[in-house]
Amino acid sequence: MDSQHYFSAAPSGPDKRRPLRVPIAGQERDLVTSGGIFSPDGIDKGTAILLSEVPPVTGSTLLDIGSGWGPLALTMAVQAPHARVIAIDVNERSLELTRENARRLELGNVAAMLPDDVNPDIAFDTIWSNPPIRIGKEALHELLLRWLPRLAPGGSAWLVVQKNLGADSLQRWLAAQLPPDYEVDRPTTSKSFRILRVERTAPENARKA
């Protein structure tokens, strides 16, 4: 599929729903998918690696950047049933699928919405993302600088990026661009993917420093 297709607000292809059986939070789940979205046939390799490497989510307000049909948001919601999970995407079909899949799993704590519909005053304790690298460097940088500065003090973001798509340069760029109370590192590498972690220092740690 043309990569721009699933970056559009309204995919041009038919919205033909079909069943999707995938593991979510360690259990096989029956969900639905459709064309015109990212990785419609299952959990892509990068997202699977992210899910295998990140610690369980913590906090009460969580964010999935680029929801697709919902694998990250659904996992967050299962792991933290009392937290609020916000899943954002520019693709309306992706948001509809995330909502439907959350209903199928009886997860009332998932809110799937367009980026501009998120309350600007909300800060996030945990952010997970397989960011859309192929939208181009400028758009990617704009996306990350829109959301990563909204980490709550003590919060963390986890990103998965392919090494050959600029993971190392992205890590250096984030470290240079984010405020001084942010730390950027690479906890692990799996196959051709880097896991990048962005942490915002808690106030008590900042005072000690």
Q: Kindly, what is the distance between the CA atoms of the first and last residues, rounded to a whole number of angstroms? A: 49 Å
Strand ordering within the main sheet = 5-4-3-6-7-9-8
Mean pLDDT: 92
**Number of E strands:** 9
Give your account of this protein's structure:
The chain has 209 residues and is of the alpha/beta class. The chain has helices at residues 45-53, 71-79, 92-104, 137-147, 167-177, 203-208; strands at residues 18-24, 27-33, 61-65, 84-88, 110-113, 124-129, 151-162, 182-190, 193-200. The strands form two sheets. A seven-stranded mixed beta sheet has the order 5-4-3-6-7-9-8, sandwiched between helices.
Key terms for this structure?
single chain; 209 residues; alpha/beta; 7-stranded mixed beta sheet; two-stranded antiparallel sheet; 6 helices; 30% strand; disordered N terminus
Topology of this structure?
Blueprint: E1 18-24, E2 27-33, H1 45-53, E3 61-65, H2 71-79, E4 84-88, H3 92-104, E5 110-113, E6 124-129, H4 137-147, E7 151-162, H5 167-177, E8 182-190, E9 193-200, H6 203-208
Parallel strand pairs: 3-4, 3-6, 4-5, 6-7
Antiparallel strand pairs: 1-2, 7-9, 8-9
What is this structure, in a nutshell?
This protein is α/β, with parallel strands linked by helices. The chain has 6 helices and 9 strands.
